[in-house]
């Protein structure tokens, strides 16, 4: 699938999601080969459900929240870039923005922030 096709598919999925259709319904209609799309939409649903209780989260963009979640899950910059379809430099920029906005300086503190606010769960 080309980059343009991927963007078009994501755009269609976002429009349908904003219209109230669930990630499962959208992906079912687009076919089983869209596993990446399902994961992407699920992440959007999870990130959008903080109900405004975390003021620090309100200052983050959706993409920064996605990067934060993936960092907290232990992914490398290269893995995050692949999963989000961006360059490693873009992920590094998002990471730097996160650290600046949250006044943190380590991956461990970003992970702790994410876990405390329910962006990701600890694996016990």
Quick structural summary:
The protein is mainly α and 124 residues long. The chain has helices spanning 3-18, 23-30, 35-47, 55-58, 62-72, 77-84, 88-102, 107-116.
Would you write up a description of this structure?
This protein is an all-alpha fold and 124 residues long. The chain has 2 domains: 3-47; 55-116, Winged helix-like DNA-binding domain superfamily/Winged helix DNA-binding domain (Arc Repressor Mutant, subunit A), CATH 1.10.10. The protein has helices at residues 3-18, 23-30, 35-47, 55-58, 62-72, 77-84, 88-102, 107-116. The model has no long low-confidence stretch (mean pLDDT 77).
Query: Approximately what portion of the residues adopt beta-strand conformation?
Result: under 5%
Helix content percent band: 55-70%
The overall pLDDT average reads 77
What is the gyration radius calculated from CA atoms?
15 Å
Domains counted in the coordinates: how many? 2
Question: Order of SSEs, N→C?
Answer: HHHHHHHH
What's the CATH class label of the largest domain?
A: Mainly Alpha
What class would the helix/strand composition place it in?
mainly alpha
Biggest sheet overview:
none
Low-confidence stretches: none
CATH topology of the largest domain: Arc Repressor Mutant, subunit A
Q: Given the structure, what is the number of helices?
A: 8
Per CATH, the architecture of the largest domain is Orthogonal Bundle
The coarse silhouette is: globular
Extended strand count: 0
End-to-end Cα distance: 37 Å
Please identify which CATH superfamily of the largest domain we are dealing with: Winged helix-like DNA-binding domain superfamily/Winged helix DNA-binding domain
